[in-house]
Amino acid sequence: MTLYGEKSPPADDRPTVQVTAVTWPDDGSEPATAAPSGEPESGPSRPRRVRMLLAAGITGGVLAAVAGAGAWAYAGDVPRGTSVLGAELGGRSRTDAHRELRAELDRRAAALTAPVRVTVGERTAEINPADVGLGVDVAATVAAATAAEAHPVSRLVGSRTVDPVVTVDVAQLDAALRKVLGNQVRGMTMPAITYQGTTPKVVQPKPGLAFDPQRSAEAVRAGWLAGTPVTVPLVESQPATTAEEVDRLVAELAKPAVAAPVTLRTDRGSLTVPPAAIAKSLRFTADKAGQLTPTVDVKRLRSALGDDLDSIEVPPKDATMTISGGRPKVTEGRPGQQLDSAALGRDLLAVLPKSDGREVSGELKPTPPALTAEKLAGLGIKERVSTFTTRFTGGMASSRSQNIATIAKEVDGTVVLPGKTFSLNGHTGERGYAQGYRDAPVILDGKLVPGVGGGTSQFTTTLFNATYYAGLEDVEHKPHSYWFDRYPAVIESTIFWPNLDFKFRNNTKYGLLIDTSYTSSTITVSIWSTKIYDSVKTEYGPRRNITTPKLIHLEPGPTCIPSNGINGFTQDAFRVIKKDGAVVKREKFTWRYDAEPRYVCGPKPS
């Protein structure tokens, strides 16, 4: 006969405890000693053994029950009692849990794909979940459910709900919300202090109103799952420097800074820093948080002081290179003595709030040249890479020829480091009478008129072609409005201060030297470096869209310059660059020339 526990478990897969039937003693007496050998056991000794058997049976049953319960609790990958969105995933394998969760999402598809009603400030709109990447990451959610609770007791009797892992594209959501927000958003007005002349001008800080992308995403995730309207919180952001602090900076620094000059003393003498120079160099800069910080921009200060610094500073001189005997020759530069910029900026800022004692001591420090002979010699400038020559008339007695020679001297010996861009306007600065330039014909408003610096375009064209045939990168150039037969068509460039410039970039790993020379009828520019291309040539397309010049009569006088007129046309030029016997680059240049009118100084014949 088999005896089961007092309460039978329901018919499911929980373990059953099974024990063997025994008879309990009636009198409760202690068991007698064992009978002599050969005699049968009697009376009292039997109940003790029975109790031992019973205890062993119960212990084994309990262990079996625990083992069975553990097997039940740990069945599957997901702990029992775990649910997501109402779907029971407990006791399932990962694969089954994935399948069940996807089925639940399919059942909720209508709700999860419905537009989300979003309110931002005073505006309300609907956002399509798919447009902002709203969705449930099934794999991540099942992983979270699997790791929900590992405690054995909780696995056996507990239950838990795991929130789904919701994805959203924060950037796309932010863009969608900004459309809803419209003109309600406003950035922070950063505080500012500037000078108009020597008068401080103030911009007071104002708070910004916007939303935090992460907080917005959290609100939309929650509302989407719950199927409820979403209110996206707007956040007001205050600049770090308050209006009161701006007013204090004006009263304690900006105004007193320009109330009087400052004396700068050095071992080589003294100079006065006027209020106008202080106003140009004292900067109040706001960072992204709106924190306003005053500094002295020493570079601006040096520019404002100009030639006054020459009385106390000795500028360093770079090493130079010239062509001698057909070979590059390096001449060592020299160090200079210049003000310690960091110390000057710090010390000047410290005295600007003061009404008296406005003096600073400037320390002159040895300043090495930017380009030493050793560095220059290591740039790989060893051979002539390209050369180009154009011709002019009038000899060196003409103003135009002298302008060509003047600009050629300014550019001669210029070294352009690898990766750097050369600007002709930037190198020469303004080309006026003070710089030695003279009046000569220039093109202005479509006709030739006297103008300072006429002829410099011929040098520009010559330099452009030298860099062009060296294979260097063209950054900026503009051909003339009219074509002149002293220049190659299309491959030429004009220049005019300050609007028209010529720029090229040294797109090689070597330095380059610009070498110029001239005669009474020619200007030549050569580029020296390390040759990297086999050849650079130009292939021309045919001229097209030919136009003929008009006849125009001008008022005779010193400003009237006659011309014979030139046809207009359009043409293509192709720069073909070869290396190791193969074409490595083919660049197209196209220009449309106007027909230059035939100008006659005098009235029309009657």
TrEMBL record:
Native species: Micromonospora acroterricola
UniProt keyword terms in alphabetical order: Membrane, Transmembrane, Transmembrane helix
Region feature Disordered, mapped onto this chain: 1-47, 309-337
Record's keyword annotation contains Transferase: no
Biased amino acid composition, Low complexity: 36-45
InterPro entries: Glycopeptide_resist_protein, Vancomycin_resist_VanW, YoaR-like_PG-bd
Pfam families with a match to the protein in the record: PG_binding_4, VanW
Stretches assigned to the YoaR-like putative peptidoglycan binding domain: 242-360
Name the UniProt record assigns to this protein: Vanomycin resistance protein VanB
Membrane-spanning intervals of the chain: 52-75
Signal peptide annotation: none
